[in-house]
Amino acid sequence: MQSQDVAPRPSSASPSSVGVEQAEAALVAHYPRLVRLAYLVLPSRLGRGRRVMAAHSLVQRTLPRGRSSSARTIPAQAAGRGADAGYAFLRVQVVRGALEADRRRGRRGWSRRGGLPPLLPRVWGLRLSPRSGGADELALDQALASLPAAARAAYVLRGLERLPDDAALRVLAAAGAADPRGALRAADRLPARYAVLDSPEFDPCSLQVRPTDLVRRRQHTRAALGAAAALAVCGALAALPGGGWDPDGAAAPAYARNPAAEAALDPARLTRAAPAAWRTSTRLDFSVWPARGNLTGDAALLRRALAVWARPGETVRVSATPDTPSGGPAGPPRLLYAGDVDSARVVILYDGLRIARYAEPKDSTAEAALDFARVDGASGAEASAVVLGRSDGDVRYLTAPWVRAAARRDLMAPGSAATDLGLRDGVTGPLASPVLRSGACTSWDALQVTGDGGRRLLSDLGELVPAHLTAGRPAAPHEAAEPAGVRAWAPFACSLGSARSQGVRSVNAWRYAEQPLPGASGAASWVCTRAETWSGAGSRVLAQVRTPGARYGALAARAQDVPACGARAPHVLAGVLWKSAAGAWYLLAAGGADTASITASGEIAASSRGPLLTARARQGAQAELKGRLENGRPLGALG
Q1: Phi and psi torsions of 240, nearest 5°
Q2: 3-state class of 247 per DSSP?
Q3: CA angle, corner 439, sides to 435 and 444, nearest 5?
Q4: Measured between alpha carbons, how far is 614 from 601 in angstroms, rounded to an integer?
Q5: pLDDT tens-digit profile of 485-499?
Q6: pTM for this predicted structure
Q7: pLDDT tens across 75-117, in order?
Q8: For residues 31 and 74, what is the distance between their CA atoms, to the nearest angstrom?
Q9: Spatial contact of 469 and 457, defined as CB atoms under 8 Å apart
Q10: Phi, psi of 189 (to 5 degrees)
């Protein structure tokens, strides 16, 4: 149960010293944030894998090596408004360590003076790296690499830590930066795209694991046994017909050769749907998408895309939606697109289970990206669009052949008209991505597609395939593109951000109750949203309430992997504490129309017949809610 109109007030105390135990508690509580900070400030020349290990090692060495009684203290750095003093101290230590690491420009590894040993931590036989992002993340990473270390730290302190300039200056000075003000001026050269810093691309605590170069490891083992045998093996591998890495671009060397694997990598064997196949097909899915784009005949590009899919090399940025396998195709996949998109060459492939997107810069095959999305069972609206590329906070889509028009629709402005994006060979114009935006959520631009099935709304959630938006009762939802659907979503659109990068297939908004408020204050609208995933696991349910005059809905409860608010269990119960205009506090609770009674116990004791409960309360009171359905079954509160 949440309390509305009440926000926690951070402490303004700034102690002059920090105890060891306080610093240790801050390290445990904020470890992922500190490691992300270290990863962003460390020099990118380390490589992604070594940079991950260095970030973890640096953060784990921020505390003193010795331990004494709790009376031992550590001088505290100036904490920002409402900041934790222990965390502020650790933040300075992390920045200091990253700046020192950048000053050690030798090529022989980390010195022990810096606290980063040359060999450990290391995972033998495995390569660890964060999940790869899109073009925005790549562009920001390259831009940060061009800055001096102190300027890079200044940018990250502003964007990730949300520090004002005066606080950032104090941190830089305490961390030993030679010219803190100059660092801030240098950071001003980059655009303030701070939301991208929260991307999984820069999260060293969420890693993907791949084997190292298996061929090279095998060669090294044989070399240890005997140089002559190793040379013979290497010579035999080099003499294999069709060998060599150059035609495969950024792909790793082949682990083995067999006819099935070779067939899957042959551009000539890619399957392509006839341009009009969708018109006579009994199903509208990705299997009937024709191949489009200006590079569908570029055999070299297609071979590189297939080879990287099967064997991504160390420089390839690989990302996949949750529970999506990232291995190579079992057979020749279907080509959906190959062409130029902004500053990249892009190939979209489909193997019946997944969409794979390969992208490489136009001027080289280095720094290629490979993204996967699970799309098994997709049809109709769910197979209407795929992300082609992201650039400068915008996203372009490739739409299905049955889509006749594409437009921008602001979910938070239900009275505004849709803005045409244009379609050229199925490719839309740029659309601002709501999940990459920084600052307050004041709008939510969705993609509206119009085709044989009518109008549909799709929302970018940071993945290859946008989520399909619906509204209405879970057992029979209707399209959110309808006027009633847009009105239902308007106060709650910003909550879609909580489903970012979670493999979401569709999200439904169900207005399940209207509750009259005490004192003739109008009525509160109760809505539950349910995000379904492609894997079937990890569904997310939010119960929200909107009171008169509020632009946004307030979160009342949330849960994951529960049937509530879904087709199997179209029931929900949630409550909040609400403060009236007269200053009185009330418990508001609501269930669906089939809720026969609600009971509150604990610090608030009340009950009611029907799906609504209103009871006097005090600020901060806690209560347990239970309900009963009309069929006699018990109904627990969400969360």
Answers
A1: -60, 140
A2: helix
A3: 45
A4: 13
A5: 999 999 999 999 989
A6: 0.65
A7: 333 333 334 678 888 999 999 999 988 876 543 444 433 444 4
A8: 19
A9: yes
A10: -70, -20
